Amino acid sequence: MTDPTRVDRARGLLFGLALGDCLGASFEGKDGVTEADIVRAEHATGPLSHTDDTALTLVLARHLAHRRGASNRGRDGVDTDVLARELAEAWEAEPWRGYGGGVTTSFRLITEGTPWREAIRAVFPDGSYGNGGAMRVAPVALAGGDVREVAELARRSAEVTHAHADALHGAVCQAVATHLALGLDATEPVRVARFVPPLRECVRSALWHDKFALVAELADSDVDPGQAAAALGNDVSAPGSVPLALLSFLRHPGRPVAAIRFAIRAGGDTDTVAAMAGALAGAHSGYAALPAHAVSRLEASRHLHLYAEHLA
Ligand code: F2R
Ligand code: MG
Ligand code: MG
């Protein structure tokens, strides 16, 4: 095996995310998913349809690609007013992609002209702690030059829909972990110690630090997906899903399909946990490591290629 190129990793990141979303979608909310159920979905024929996870990732990828350039790096890489409108427009065009209840109301209000800062507190006055900011954040890992820049871009990209601190922590965690995965030599063993210290630094929260400690412990164990879900959570909240995605990747370094299957077999929010695990695994192993038959069936293939090339 050779170390993948930057373009191959960028494609791996976006296609891994879409593959996890599409394969996980039919199992969302179900527990007791078997390996055989997932293998059947992988080997079926016909297009693989994505959900809100991929739809909004494409919006963010396009936003970042259009704003690339020396004067648009760092904080300016995300224009929050523009991004809020672009995300809401994507929902308005395809509201049937399986959006969360809170964010649906926010998007409707934004399309009707309510400022996003007001709209995102209409349903949950303290803000949503859902994983919607984290599920779409992975392209930020390609746009930011270092961990600090990635963390700041992640926060800005998530805050236009999610005001709760845990949702923002989830987005920062997923973006920074993906950035670190992009930078690892894929021919070397993956060490948990390369992830946990920078994540602790970027995400200053006792709840998240406890989750990182658990991920580190479980990554070196033979924990099965059900036990991992019981320990870390597998629900629609950011703290209840982002750590499980990281563990899915760390349990199967260099094996994106195994990472995605682990995430789906854990049950619960399967499309989203598998999308985040797929982004991490694809960023690390590259596009060539993804299953060609399943990848060729992805509905968004053309746009995934386009934005991967722009952002690489
Ligand atoms: N929503 C889903 N899947 C279930 C519905 C599927 C669809 N109806 C269908 O049948 O096709 N999946 C997608 O939603 C998750 C991302 O959610 P996001 O974008 O964060 O949305 P939202 O609405 O902000 O939060 C999701 C739910 O979390 C609970 N919640 C959040 N903050 C809360 C708070 N402060 N207090 C109480 N509850 C809170 C609510 O139940 C929200 O509805 C991904 O799984 C994506 O795939
Ligand atoms: Mg979804
Ligand atoms: Mg989901």
What labels would you give this structure?
ADP-ribosylglycohydrolase fold; mainly alpha; 18 helices; 62% helix; binds ADP-ribosyl-L-arginine; 312 residues; binds magnesium ion
Give an overview of the whole structure.
This protein is mainly α and 312 residues long. It has a single domain, classed as ADP-ribosylation/Crystallin J1 (ADP-ribosylglycohydrolase fold). The chain contains 18 helices and no strands. Helix 4 crosses helix 5, helix 9 packs antiparallel against helix 10 and helix 10 runs parallel beside helix 16. The longest helix has 20 residues. The protein is globular and about 50 Å long. About 2% of the residues have low confidence. ADP-ribosyl-L-arginine binds next to helix 3, helix 5, helix 7 and helix 16. This is ADP-ribosylglycohydrolase. Its cofactor is Mg(2+). Keywords: Hydrolase, Magnesium, Metal-binding. It comes from Saccharomonospora piscinae. It holds the Pfam family ADP_ribosyl_GH.
